[in-house]
Design a protein that fits this description.
Largest sheet: 4 strands, antiparallel
Radius of gyration: 17 Å
Order of helices and strands: HHEEHHHHEHHEH
Shape: globular
Number of helices: 9
Strand content: 15-25%
Length: about 170
Amino acid sequence: KSLRKMKDRNAYRNLMSGVGYVKNAFIKSVETTFSYQNGWHYHQHECYMINKDIDEKAFKKQIVKHWVVSVKRSGFDIPSIRDFKKYGIDVMFNCHASSYLQKSGIGTWGVDKELSNGSTKRARKEGGYSAFELASSDDAFLNDKFIEYARATKSRVSFKIGEYFQSVLRS
């Protein structure tokens, strides 16, 4: 909801237009993890094609600002802006689309695998579980969590390539 609110705002659209965002030039993947400490953690990884000649620091600052505003407008409380900026959004640059599409960097975990192999990832923190770690666990509670995950995500898209990249792939 917050991401949709951010992307629907004119200020965000103007920012993206100003950095040369090519409409529908994106790759997006959805990932869900579970931990005993925090429960479910749903998040997205998104890659956009923009002009490489931008002030990265200024752009990142603007994206973070738009994200904070949208999350607040969605009704969420942000007790610590510092922590939210550290953990709530990560803007990276120079992630070449060819790396995503060609699956380069075999043997390493790069941006390409971050976007396309979410189901095979392991949770980063002790006590955290990816969906398929839940399914393969010997713990009945975790297996039940996988069933909950499967029901909640049934028929939902977890990976999407924008029309622009699809047309490039078809040609």
